[in-house]
Amino acid sequence: MINSRRTFLRVAGGLSASAALLPLWACGDGGGDHASTETTPPESEERAGGGDLGAFGIQLYTLRDMMPGDPRGTLKQIADMGYKQIEGYEGAQGMFWGMEPQEFKDYLDELGLTMVSTHCNINENFAEKAQQAASIGVEYLICPYIGAQDGKAGWDAVIEKFNECGRICAEHGIRFAYHNHAYTFEEVDGIVPQAYLMDNTDDTVDYEMDIYWVVTGGADPVKWLNDYPGKWRLCHVKDRKKGAGPDEHEASVDLGKGSIDFPRILAVAEEQGMEYYILEQEDYENSTPVKSAAAGARYLADFTFA
């Protein structure tokens, strides 16, 4: 059964995702203005057989070469592609790209964008970041990377840190989550770190499934979704190059062009409580960040659950 929160999100944002889509995949590269030829996009609707994603998001790291030089212009392009949600990351200009939190939110409101989450450095001023995020309605602060630990004791320390972050977020009425990489699926000291984390962190800690990294780590996303229902609240929808070997980590490609079976995986994700579907792409073979982001928007706008 689809959880009530996800159903609400679909009803609230459902018709807007595809309807706002512009064909920016024909654009040029770089951080400047991009020409596009406007066409009439297909209407988004609840289709027979399970419906569509409704609103979907993009991790701003996908456009990391553009954001620092022109955050406002880049966000405008994101909105024009049909994205309704963004997930931020903390760079040299902070989580809000040199703007005050409310100033940043006001600009997103103008564009019809909602910042649902942001990756951040959890080791510096975390309580302040939680307060700032909460003040503008950001739901999740996310640890994007913790690194492989030497053994069980190292992961025990990570659990303690994550529980602390979860408590701080809860004090501000928001949630904390961890974004996996491949290393958490590699056994060490008789444990699989991802399972060890999920079995031992408090209820204040959620998880963001990076589907690409689950597959790269040799694991099955469907199994992990079923084994931990309701714990995976966000996901990175990121495709993996066909034929890429297990040691080939930099192999993301445009959505729908790779080897990952998203219809199978996302159907289970929806059943098991997934709230947010967020494009991320890090490599752009025969493409550009803008073209790949727009191609991802097309894929997500057209996606339907079987």
User: CATH topology, which one?
Assistant: TIM Barrel
- Largest beta-sheet details: 8 strands, parallel, barrel
Radius of gyration based on Cα positions: 18 Å
Q: Give the spatial strand order of the biggest sheet.
A: 1-2-3-4-5-6-7-10
Cα-to-Cα separation, first versus last residue: 14 Å
- Structural class comes to alpha/beta
Name the overall outline: globular
Number of domains: 1
CATH class: Alpha Beta
* H/E element order: HHEHEHEHEHEHEHHEEEHEH
Average residue pLDDT: 87
Under the CATH scheme, the architecture is Alpha-Beta Barrel
> Could you tell me the number of beta strands?
10
Helix content: 25-40%
Question: Which stretches are low in confidence, meaning pLDDT under 50 for 5 or more residues running?
Answer: 1-49
Count of discrete alpha- or pi-helical segments spanning 4 or more residues: 11
CATH homologous group name: Divalent-metal-dependent TIM barrel enzymes
Q: How much of the sequence is in beta strands?
A: 5-15%
Explain this structure to me?
With 306 residues, this protein is an alpha/beta fold. It has a single domain, classed as TIM Barrel (Alpha-Beta Barrel), CATH 3.20.20. Helices cover 36% and strands 14% of the residues. The protein contains 11 helices and 10 strands. The chain has helices spanning 4-13, 16-19, 71-81, 101-111, 126-135, 152-171, 193-200, 211-216, 221-227, 262-271, 289-302; strands at 57-59, 85-88, 114-119, 140-143, 175-179, 205-210, 232-237, 239-240, 252-253, 276-279. The strands form 2 sheets. The chain has an 8-stranded parallel barrel with strand order 1-2-3-4-5-6-7-10, surrounded by 4 helices. Helix 6 links the parallel strand 4 (140-143) and strand 5 (175-179). Helix 6 (152-171) packs across helix 7 and helix 9 runs parallel beside helix 10 (262-271). The longest helix is centred in the middle third of the chain and has 20 residues, at 152-171. It is globular, with a radius of gyration of 18 Å. The protein starts with a helix and ends with a helix. The model is unreliable at 1-49 (pLDDT under 50).
